[in-house]
Amino acid sequence: MRTFDLAPLYRATVGFDQIADLMDRVLTDNVGAQTYPPYNIEKTAEDGWRISIATAGFSDEDLNVEVREQALFVSARKAADEEKRTYLHRGIATRAFERRFHLADHVKVTGAAHVNGMLHIDLVREVPEALKPRTIAIARDHSADAKTVEHATA
């Protein structure tokens, strides 16, 4: 796989660090990509998503969901009493994990629920009013503008 050097992009731009970092993450060779635990990302609305993570064997107290630095961190640590058990077969992996999801601007976590071994995290994009497109009304009465122009030229 080809690798790209993004150093010229960093040298020639100011304020586009997030885009460069995103490209850097996407273009890196993820040979050691994390596959545990399995998860789904689904679109629930125009500006809404749900991340569902398979967390069989973990209780609510074992799970931690945190948002910091424009990223969602989900981690789990199993209680120490698991070490005392003797298994004849252990097919349910309850090893500790940390999964990170980078969030776009204005994406907020609205809630999390742990149901039937699945951790569901709901997200929504809340664009501030100042950044939303707005329509400017066009005045149909041109007589006010004509009077203003006449007074200015006279």
Protein described:
This protein is α+β, with helices and mostly antiparallel strands and 154 residues long. It folds into 2 domains: 1-33, no CATH class; 34-138, Sandwich (Immunoglobulin-like). Helices cover 18% and strands 32% of the residues. It has 3 helices and 7 strands. It has helices at residues 7-12, 17-27, 143-153, and strands spanning 39-45, 48-54, 63-68, 71-76, 97-102, 107-115, 118-125. The strands form 2 sheets. A 4-stranded antiparallel sheet has the order 1-2-7-6, with no helix packed on it. The chain has a 3-stranded antiparallel sheet with strand order 3-4-5, with no helix packed on it. The radius of gyration is 26 Å and the shape is flat. The mean pLDDT is 81.
Set down the secondary structure blueprint.
Blueprint lengths: L6 H6 L4 H11 L11 E7 L2 E7 L8 E6 L2 E6 L20 E6 L4 E9 L2 E8 L17 H11 L1
Antiparallel strand pairs: 1-2, 2-7, 3-4, 4-5, 6-7
Task: Give short descriptive properties of this protein.
7 strands; 4-stranded antiparallel sheet; 2 domains; 3-stranded antiparallel sheet; 32% strand; Immunoglobulin-like; alpha+beta; flat; 154 residues
Describe this structure in a few short sentences.
By secondary structure, this protein is an alpha+beta fold.
Count of discrete alpha- or pi-helical segments spanning 4 or more residues:
3
Percent in strands: 25-35%
Radius of gyration: 26 Å
CATH structural class of the largest domain: Mainly Beta
Which sequence of SSEs, written as H and E, runs from N to C?
A: HHEEEEEEEH
Please report the distance between the alpha carbons of the first and last residues: 73 Å
Quickly give the structural class: alpha+beta
Helix content: 10-25%
Strand order of the largest sheet: 1-2-7-6
| Unreliable stretches | none
Count of β-strands: 7
